[in-house]
Amino acid sequence: MQDEESLVQRAQQRDQGAFAQLYEGYFDRIYRYVVLRIGNEMEAEDVTQQVFLNALRSISSFRWKGVPFSAWLFRIAHNQVVDYLRKKTRQATESFDESLAINKSDPWLEVEQRLDIEQLILATKRLTKAQQEVIALRFVSELSTAQVAKVMGKSEGAVKALQHSAIVALRKALSVGYDIEKV
């Protein structure tokens, strides 16, 4: 991606090409974060599009104050997810389509991977909301600890502690196994 700061400055001056480059550079990471948080690919696409519409509307308010542009975008994504979950009624939703991460050449491997992914998703749902957020930002969206701290409005130490407790909880849940009915 071209120098991020100059792209943002150009986008702030309503350069559509610059915003398109930012969109393409961040779409996948934002989408992965959203889909993990809400668990539905189709709705995650809509939420992700809304994130970028909101970013486009308010890009002129972005200021370089030690916060990277990606942290600003992920904060918008976080707010969109919170709004979505707040508005969502208690209805059954499908988990995201794991087939994107599955090797289709070996049917046995595919079944094994689907089970592993399903177990991981179920184990992740047992974490606190803050732990889920840290896992989604750190490992799905591949943000640094410092970036996650800025997105979540926490110290790096707090993020590291949350990450550690989340990994311990996931490790425990995955090693002991659990009953799918309880989740």
Relevant terms:
183 residues; Rna Polymerase Sigma Factor, Chain: A; single chain; disordered C terminus; 8 helices; mainly alpha; 2 domains; Arc Repressor Mutant, subunit A
Question: What do these coordinates show?
Answer:
This protein is mainly α and 183 residues long. The protein folds into 2 domains: 84 residues, RNA polymerase sigma factor, region 2, helix turn helix motif (Rna Polymerase Sigma Factor, Chain: A), CATH 1.10.1740; 83 residues, Winged helix-like DNA-binding domain superfamily/Winged helix DNA-binding domain (Arc Repressor Mutant, subunit A, Orthogonal Bundle). It has 8 helices and no strands. The radius of gyration is 18 Å and the shape is globular.
In N-to-C order, the SSE pattern is HHHHHHHH
According to DSSP, the number of beta strands is 0
Main sheet record: none
Give the low-pLDDT segments. Answer: 90-103, 178-183
Quick description:
It is built from eight helices and no strands. With 183 residues, it is an all-alpha fold.
Topology:
Elements: H1 4-12, H2 16-38, H3 41-58, H4 69-87, H5 107-125, H6 129-140, H7 145-152, H8 156-176
Helix pairs in contact: 1-2, 2-3, 2-4, 2-6, 3-4, 4-7, 5-8, 6-8, 7-8
